[in-house]
UniProtKB/TrEMBL annotation:
TPR repeats lie at residues 37-70. GO terms for biological process: superoxide anion generation. The keyword Nucleotide-binding does not apply. Keywords: Cytoplasm, Repeat, SH3 domain, TPR repeat. InterPro entries: NCF2_NOXA1, TPR-like_helical_dom_sf, TPR_rpt. This is Uncharacterized protein. It comes from Amphimedon queenslandica. Residues 294-312 have a biased composition (Polar residues).
Length: 404
C-alpha cells in the first residue's frame, strides 16, 4: 500500500471518529497495513467510547510495545487499570509515564497530531489516587502536594482538581481520578501529508478585470470563444468606439457569401477541326522497325563517333596500377601502353628524384628472381604475364624495387 492510501485510511478513520462512528473508525484504522503506535492509541480510545475496556487495554498494550517512549500511552493504560480496579498495575504505568516525561513539566503532542498536553501534575495526581485506594495514605498525600507544586508552575485551570482533592482528604472524603478529555481521543495525520492527498487549486479561478465589450465575462481561450460566438448571437459593440476599430468582437452583419453550385460538364465528341490540330500519337512499334536502316545493336553515338586512332594495348587492358617499393610503398595509376622512359619519369616525380637516377627491378612472383628493367623490351616482358592472367584492367600484382 502506498503512502497516499495509508494517509487516506488514517484521515477517513479520524473523520469517522469525530462524527461519532466509532466502529467504522476502528475498521478504517485496522485496514492500514502495519499500523503504528499512534493508530493503536486511536483504536484504544474508540473501544473506550464503545465501553469495551478489555479490547482497549489490548490495543494500548500494542501501542506501548511499538513505541516504548509514548508517555501518554502508559497514562491512558493506567487510567483503564483504575476502571478495572487494578491499582498496582496502574501505579506501574504511571511510573513509566513519569519516566518518559524525563523531568519535564509537560509534553505537547500537537506536533504528533494529538491536541493535548500531558502534565506531570496529572500523572502524579492519578498515582496518588491509586495509593489512596490501597490505603497508603501518607504517600498519597505527599504525591498530591508534589502535584500541587508542579501544577502551580503551569497555571492550568484544570489542575484545580489537585487542591480540591487535598481539601476532600482533610474532610475525610474520597476524590476522583483524572481522565483524558474527549478532545484528546485520536492522533490526526500531519497536514503536510493530507495536503498531498487533497487536490489544491493553487491558481484559483480566472476573472475578467477589463474588457472593451460590455457583458463580457469570458475567461477561456480564444478558440473556445469563437466557437461560442458562432453558435450564439454576437454581443453588442460599444458605441463609444470608432466604427472601424480593430478592438471589437462583433462580426459583420453582412451574410456570408454563398458557395457556388456544383457544375456539370457534358461530353461532346471531337470535331474534325480539333482532330487536325491534335498532334499524332507516337508509334508503338519497336525501335528496330522505326529505323530499319540502323542496326539495333549499334547506338547512335557509336555509329557517328570517329574510330579510335590509338591501337589497342597488346596486354589486353587499358590501365593498370603499379606498386613501387622504395623508402615507402606508393601506387601509380598508368596506361597499359606507357613507355619505359615515361614510367621512369613518373616514378622519379613520385619519390622526388631526378630523372635517370634510379634503377627499376621487377620481382617474378613464380621464381622470386629479380629482373632489371632497362628498356621497352624488358618492360614488356615484365608486364605481359600478369596482365594476360588477369581479366581486370587494374593490376596490383607488379612489384618494383627502386634503388639509387
Amino acid at each position: 500500500m502506498s503512502l497516499k492510501e495509508m494517509i487516506e485510511f488514517w484521515k477517513k478513520g479520524v473523520d469517522e471518529a469525530q462524527q461519532g462512528r466509532h466502529s467504522e473508525a476502528i475498521k478504517s484504522f485496522l485496514d492500514m497495513p502495519e499500523p503504528g503506535a499512534r493508530i493503536y492509541f486511536n483504536i484504544a480510545n474508540m473501544y473506550v467510547c464503545l465501553g469495551n475496556i478489555e479490547e482497549a487495554e489490548k490495543s494500548l498494550n500494542v501501542c506501548v510495545k511499538k513505541d516504548p517512549n509514548l508517555a501518554i500511552g502508559y497514562f491512558q493504560r493506567g487510567c483503564l487499570h483504575i476502571v478495572n480496579k487494578k491499582y498496582r498495575e496502574a501505579i506501574c504505568d504511571f511510573d513509566l509515564a513519569i519516566k518518559n516525561l524525563r523531568g519535564n513539566l509537560l509534553i505537547d503532542y500537537k506536533q504528533l497530531g494529538l491536541i493535548y498536553k500531558l502534565y506531570t501534575a496529572e500523572v502524579l495526581y492519578n498515582k496518588a489516587y491509586c495509593l489512596w485506594q490501597i490505603n497508603e495514605r501518607s504517600e498519597s498525600k505527599r504525591l498530591l502536594n508534589e502535584a500541587l507544586a508542579s501544577a502551580a508552575e503551569c497555571s492550568e485551570s484544570r489542575h484545580r482538581v489537585v487542591s480540591t482533592a487535598l481539601d476532600q482528604i482533610k474532610r475525610g472524603e474520597d476524590f476522583l481520578p483524572y481522565r483524558l478529555p474527549k478532545t484528546a481521543q485520536v492522533f490526526v495525520p500531519p497536514r503536510s501529508k493530507t495536503d498531498v492527498v487533497n487536490n489544491i487549486d493553487f491558481l484559483g479561478k480566472a476573472k475578467v478585470v477589463s474588457s472593451v465589450v460590455d457583458q463580457d465575462d469570458f475567461t477561456g481561450f480564444v478558440g473556445a470563444q469563437k466557437n461560442k460566438e458562432s453558435r450564439s448571437p454576437s454581443p453588442a459593440v460599444r458605441k463609444d468606439l470608432p466604427p472601424h476599430s480593430s478592438i471589437t468582437r462583433s462580426k459583420s452583419s453582412e451574410p456570408p457569401p454563398k458557395p457556388n453550385p456544383p457544375t456539370t460538364r457534358k461530353y461532346s465528341p471531337p470535331s474534325a477541326k480539333d482532330a487536325k490540330m491534335r498532334p499524332p500519337k507516337p508509334s508503338m512499334a519497336p525501335p528496330s522497325f522505326r529505323h530499319p536502316s540502323r542496326s539495333p545493336n549499334l547506338s547512335p553515338s557509336s555509329e557517328h563517333s570517329p574510330t579510335n586512332s590509338r591501337s589497342p594495348s597488346p596486354y589486353g587492358a587499358s590501365a593498370m596500377t603499379i606498386k613501387v617499393h622504395y623508402t615507402t610503398t606508393r601506387a601509380i595509376r598508368v596506361a597499359s601502353s606507357i613507355s619505359y622512359q615515361k614510367l621512369v619519369h613518373l616514378i622519379c616525380r613520385k619519390f622526388d628524384k631526378s630523372d635517370n637516377s634510379i634503377t627499376l627491378w621487377f620481382k617474378c612472383s613464380d621464381t622470386g628472381d629479380r629482373i632489371q628493367l632497362t628498356d621497352e623490351k624488358t618492360l614488356v616482358s615484365a608486364l605481359i604475364i600478369p596482365l594476360t592472367e588477369s581479366a581486370s584492367s587494374i593490376i596490383n600484382l607488379l612489384i618494383y624495387y627502386c634503388l639509387d
